[in-house]
Amino acid sequence: MPEIILDAGHGGHDPGAVGNGLKEKDIVLDLALRTGKLLEASGATVKYTRTTDVFVELSDRARLANMLKADLFVSFHVNSSANPASGFESFIYSGVNGGQTAAYQNVIHRKIAAVFSSEGVTDRGQKKANLAVLRETNMPAMLIEYGFINSPKDAALLKNTLFLNRLSKATADGIADALGIKQVSKDDFAGHWAEKEIRMVLEAGKMSGYPDGTFRPDQPLTRAELAVLIAKGII
């Protein structure tokens, strides 16, 4: 199975971008761990540049990935801007011209962009940059900017546990698809017009035994199922 390095940016004394009561280092660590858990469930080998609130030098992040001979390096970040801005974007090394790295970016970016777009957040596009973790890694590498921390709209989404679950699932799905990893389980409501609402019910009830629309999203409820939902205060 492919080996993946997930890199939560910043950490320790370096908070990264700060805004709207959030610190970049906390958000990206949360997202990286959620994403890694999903990938591990599919059988992938996942390593992290950090799993706690510690600072790791940029060169050490790349050195770890190179030492492990990973198949893919993904760095998690949240943007910030001096001027009002909002949106999601991803980066690969500016020296890359097409090839596997660009192909991976296409797949992963598209999956994550769909989640942001469902909330009216702009897709700022697939870009290239001369960033250290992209330049110094020997394998395909991608850096993801999950919105702008100083945007009230983006920050509100990044404070929402349900939205973070959706982002991490989209990221894991994108990585799995790019690397050809067969996922252990795939809910059949992914991409459904009511996906957001179904996930809200799942989050509220923590899968506690009531009908939630997971496996038959377009089938009607029975009166008994409706009664259960009402009794549990879900509807």
Please outline the helices and strands.
Blueprint: E1 3-8, E2 18-19, E3 22-23, H1 24-41, E4 45-48, H2 58-68, E5 72-79, E6 88-93, H3 99-118, E7 123-129, H4 132-135, E8 141-148, H5 152-158, H6 161-179, H7 195-205, H8 223-231
Parallel strand pairs: 1-4, 1-5, 5-8, 6-7
Antiparallel strand pairs: 2-3, 6-8
Helix pairs in contact: 1-6, 3-6
CATH architecture tag of the largest domain: 3-Layer(aba) Sandwich
Please report the number of helical segments. 8
Largest beta-sheet characterization: 6 strands, mixed
User: What is the name of the CATH class of the largest domain?
Assistant: Alpha Beta
Distance between the termini: 43 Å
Strands in their spatial order, largest beta sheet? 4-1-5-8-6-7
What's the total number of strands?
8
Q: Give the rounded overall mean pLDDT.
A: 89
Number of domains: 2
Question: What is the beta-strand fraction?
Answer: 15-25%
Question: Can you tell me about this structure?
Answer:
There is one protein chain. The protein has 235 residues and is an alpha/beta fold. It has 2 domains: 3-179, Aminopeptidase; 195-231, no CATH class. The chain has 8 helices and 8 strands; from the N terminus they run E-E-E-H-E-H-E-E-H-E-H-E-H-H-H-H. The chain has helices at residues 24-41, 58-68, 99-118, 132-135, 152-158, 161-179, 195-205, 223-231; strands at residues 3-8, 18-19, 22-23, 45-48, 72-79, 88-93, 123-129, 141-148. The strands form 2 sheets. The chain has a 6-stranded mixed β-sheet with strand order 4-1-5-8-6-7, with helices on both faces. The chain has a two-stranded antiparallel sheet with strand order 2-3. Helix 3 (99-118) runs antiparallel to helix 6 (161-179). The protein is globular.
